[in-house]
Design a protein that fits this description.
Strand content: 25-35%
Radius of gyration: 26 Å
CATH superfamily of the largest domain: P-loop containing nucleotide triphosphate hydrolases
CATH topology of the largest domain: Rossmann fold
Distance between the termini: 81 Å
Number of helices: 11
Largest sheet: 9 strands, mixed
Helix content: 25-40%
Strand order of the largest sheet: 6-5-7-8-4-9-10-11-12
């Protein structure tokens, strides 16, 4: 016999409370707790409603399912090799960033390879979908569209069509009639996602759901939403650049923190085959305050330009600002330069920017950031063929970073002549290259000597 149980859940962060509170104890938002009435069964079932029993892991029957390609090699890279049948993928991004465009292009490529697709839209009509599909050349008899917000009705259509791939755009607009809350509430989002998860696993349908984001850029709804799905992709970009970045922050079928870069064009998204070359395309020659670093996004090395500007402050308190980089790490690097190499920066404004509109939070950028700041402070340009890789410690030492060999090979591929790397993380036996000189340094002072020695 099931009995009803009531609790209050924050619609912003998913924090649960036994009673209503004016302010959420988890995120601090006011009036964000909503009452949820759920039914708790007396007997527990197995995963996805099936009875289960413990067995030895050696006896688990496993068949490796082949993934199918989305038609975009960059997106396949982020997904870990392609779409896995029976997986549930969540993609989020700012309004108008291009999520529907990306999904329709995936539909076009999958339909051309013989897959059957069902596109369930809770925000647009079928006429609007066709207009966009015509612009993207995505019209196909194997692509079915449905403008529906009732998830039960959409699942009936999916059962009748038996598609290979299904899209729900978006999870905040669909609802189940068995749940009394409004569409987009914590209870509806959780129930709808759980229903789609069960269908994906039982029917073997790959399902992609679109999620709204908050003003902070995080996925709206309970945090449980990200835990339930198999993969979480963020679609990033801004209105001042045509670059779009798809970043994986969770992937049960591949590596996390992978990244794919696209250009937004009139006819849709275009893949960027060599992101490093794109980010360095407009780098000025012999300009003080510019340094090249080798960052790592997932398993992919990226060469980026770090720009720095150090100028005498006109006010009592100097300004410090970082765009695309971690401002706290920039402040730490400034303090190390001030203390360890006697560079007087306490009365100067400092600005750091990662060119190209990309954001990278990695300690391996510390050395390049320090070289760019020193270059701007001394008004001396760094050598155009140098790449800097390394983490800077508080005592001024240059510490080793992960996957150094991959970063060096990326610099070699793009024609750079010298890499300044941590001394303890490098040995000549790791890489043999006649066209690239690798210099190991143990401190930030040694790195400055090498950087300005020629």
């Amino acid at each position: 016999m099931a009995k009803p149980k009531s609790k209050f859940i924050c619609r912003e962060c998913g924090t649960e409370s036994a009673k209503w509170l004016g302010r959420c104890s988890g995120c601090g938002e006011w009036n964000s707790l909503e009452e949820v009435v759920q039914t708790v069964p007396d007997a527990r079932g197995g995963v996805f409603g099936q009875a289960s029993s413990a067995i030895a892991i050696d006896d688990v029957h496993f068949e490796r399912e082949e993934r199918y390609s989305t038609g975009m090699s960059e997106l396949d890279w982020v997904l870990g090799g392609g779409v896995v049948p029976g997986s549930l993928v969540l993609i989020g991004g700012d309004p108008g960033i291009g999520k529907s465009t990306l999904l329709l292009q995936i539909c076009r490529n999958l339909a051309s390879s013989g897959k059957k697709i069902l596109y369930v839209s809770g925000e647009e009509s079928t006429t609007q979908l066709k207009m966009r599909a015509e612009r993207l050349a995505a019209l196909s008899p194997r692509l079915f569209v449905l403008a529906e917000t009732n998830l039960d009705a959409a699942l009936q259509q999916a059962s009748a069509l038996a598609p290979d791939f299904m899209i729900v755009d978006s999870i905040q607009t669909v609802y189940r009639s068995s749940v009394t809350s409004a569409a987009g509430s914590v209870a509806q989002v959780r129930e709808c996602t759980g229903t789609l998860l069960r269908m994906a696993k039982q029917a073997g349908i790959a399902i992609c759901i679109v999620g709204h984001v908050t003003k902070d850029g995080l996925l709206a709804g309970p945090r449980l939403l990200e835990h339930m799905v198999d993969a979480v992709l963020y679609f990033e970009g801004d209105r001042y650049h045509d670059q779009r970045i798809v970043r994986a922050v969770k992937n049960r079928f591949g590596s996390t923190h992978e990244m794919a870069i696209f250009h937004m064009r009139e006819h849709g998204l275009e893949q960027v085959a060599n992101p490093s070359e794109m980010f360095l395309l407009e780098r000025p020659d012999e300009a003080p305050g510019s340094a090249v670093v080798a960052a790592l996004e997932g398993s992919r090395p990226l060469l980026l330009e770090v720009q720095a500007l150090v100028a005498l402050s006109s006010f009592g308190t100097p300004r410090r600002m970082a765009t695309g980089a971690d401002q706290q790490r920039m402040n730490m690097v400034l303090a190390v330069l001030e203390r360890r190499v006697d560079m007087h920066l306490q009365s100067s404004d400092a600005y750091v920017n990662i060119a190209g509109g990309v954001r990278v939070d990695e300690p391996a950028l510390d050395l390049g950031m320090a070289m760019a700041l020193a270059s701007s402070f001394r008004n001396r340009a760094l050598h155009a063929g140098d790449v800097f890789i390394g983490e800077v410690g508080l005592t001024g030492e240059v510490r080793q970073v992960s996957r150094l060999e991959q970063r060096i090979r990326e610099a070699q591929k793009l024609g750079f002549k010298r890499c300044v790397v941590p001394k303890h993380g490098w040995s000549p036996s790791l890489l043999r290259a006649d066209s690239l000189e690798v210099v190991g340094v143990s401190s930030i002072g040694d790195a400055l000597t090498e950087a300005f020695s020629r």
